[in-house]
Amino acid sequence: MADPRLKAAFAARRFIVAPGIFDMISAKLADGMGFECLYVTCFGTVASHLGVADAGIATYTDMVGRVGAMARGTRTPVIADADTGYGGLLNVRHTVLGYAAAGVSGIQLEDQEMPKKCGHTPGRRVIPAEEMALKIRVAAEARHDPNFLIVARTDARTTLGLEEAIRRGRIYAEAGADVIFIESPESEAEMQAIGRAIDKPLLANMVEGGRTPILPAARLAEIGYAMAIYPAIGFLAAAAALEKAYAHLKATGDSAAIGESYGFGRMTTLMGFPEVWEFEQRWAQGGTSDGAI
User: Fold this and answer.
1) pTM reported for the whole predicted model
2) For residue 54, what is the domain's CATH number?
3) Where in the sequence is the domain holding 114, given as residue range(s)?
4) What DSSP state is assigned to residue 73?
5) Is 189 within a domain?
6) pLDDT band at 292 (very low <50, low <70, confident <90, very high)
7) Which residue has the higher pLDDT, 21 or 209?
8) Residue 184 resides in a domain
């Protein structure tokens, strides 16, 4: 079931900051930080799982298991990127049902042609707005939980311009989307125009090095946004730390002097080893320590 806290946060008009998660380490770390939502990024999940570009290569089957693991392994509501819904209308229905069963509280669907591309890279093309509106209507009908949110993304800005992107955002809102995501506006002025034009919760995509300016959460709320996702922050930080550690090891042959790390003890705790050790100790004694048998 979808977590009702996420829909309640939107209803209360609390600005939602959602870090990107891409594997179970990032998911568990972010889960303990007190965020109101976590965002499963396709870019990071595809990169960490398959080691390829976020360019429509990953399938529904590749993604739903990993999405489910992250949702089940965390207590924070999760919104998951589901690309185009992995096909036509029947695929969209199947994807919504599968992601809902996996335990997420919201799904993001986009209006790109297949195969899709990462939203801050060139060459994206979109399907007709009316075709995407049908996908949104199918998604809205497929959900069985009113707390399950549909995020509708349009990639029209880059190829068709801001006016068309705003038009599509309005159409998708009318079709039943709960949150509107206009991808890659290219200035703060464009973001302000989006905030004035669409009367629906708006999502801002804050990608370090992307096409959209990075604005503080307070400023995003001021110009009309309800939520910001930071899909790349985790895997970019992880890649930088790994590069530094591996380079040091290669240069020196010594891991002891790499410097500050998360710590093996902390990692064992994060992954639940203390519970494993307690379980093993109890059953090594025949399960009698708590009077069970």
Assistant:
1) 0.93
2) 3.20.20.60
3) 4-238
4) T
5) yes
6) very low
7) 21
8) yes
